[in-house]
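Sample pair:
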Amino acid sequence: MPARIDETDRALAAALVDAPAAPFAELAGRLGIAASTLSARYRRLRRDGLIRVVARPLIDAAAGPERLLRTPLTAADAPAAQTPGPATGSVLWSRVSADRSERITLVTGDADPGPAGDAGAGAAVLHRWGAGAADPNAPTGRIDAVDELLIGTLTGDGRADLRTLAATAGIDPSTASRRRRRLIDSGVVRLETLVDQRLQRGAAETMLWLQVSPGKIVAVGDALHAAPETDFVAALSGPAVLAARVHAGPGLGAVDFVDRVCGPLGVTGVELTPLRG
C-alpha cells in the first residue's frame, strides 16, 4: 500500500510537471526542501506508481498515435476497474468518472486499456498542447546506436541517473550527460511527468468535452492550455473537437471555469464529466 501522501509529495509532483528534467538541487532551491529529501520522496513515489517521468521520442512513430478512449463500466468491472489507474506501458493515464459509469484513458499505439477496452469509444488525438515540437533553433543531428540505447532507457525512466545511462550505453557518465542534453535540446525526445490523481492538490478533476466553431479551435486550445487549472488539452477527432482535464473547486468550480474561460471564446457546446478523487 502506498505511504501517506503529504504536501511535500504534492509540491514535488507539481514542480516535476513544470520541469521534468530539473536536478533535485534546483528543485530544492525552488521549494525550500532539501535535495536529499526530494530525491528520497521521488524514489518512493515512483516505486508506488504515483509518478513517472518518461521520455517521448518525437522522431520515432513506432509507438503509434495517441488515442483518448471512453470505456463504459458496469457492476461486473468493480472494484478493480473503478479506481484511477497509474500510467503503465502505453497507457499514459487513466481516470474513472465520479459516477463510475466510464473509464477515460489516454493511450499510445495499439495499447489495450483493459478487458472492456473494445467497448470504448475512441478518438484520435490530433494535437496535444504541451506535448510540443522541438525548438526550431535547437541543434539537430542524426542519432546513432548509442543514442538509441539512451532513448530506450529514458523512455522507461526519464530521470535515470548518469551512471545508469552510461552503463546501458557503454560510455562514460560525462558523455552520457552531453548526449542526453543533446537529445532533449534538439527535440529528439521530450520529457513528460505523469502524475497519479492522488498527488493532485485538493481541487476536483473534471473532463471537458468541447464543441468549438471552425476558425476558433486553436485559439480555444491555446487559452485552455494557458489556464493554470488545466493539465491536459487535446484536439480530437469525433464530435468533441477539444478535450481538457480541469482541476477546479467543488460544486460549481468546473461550471465557473467553463463560463469564465470557455464562454467568451466561441465554445458552442460542452459536456462535463466529473472524475473520481
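The chain has eight helices and ten strands.
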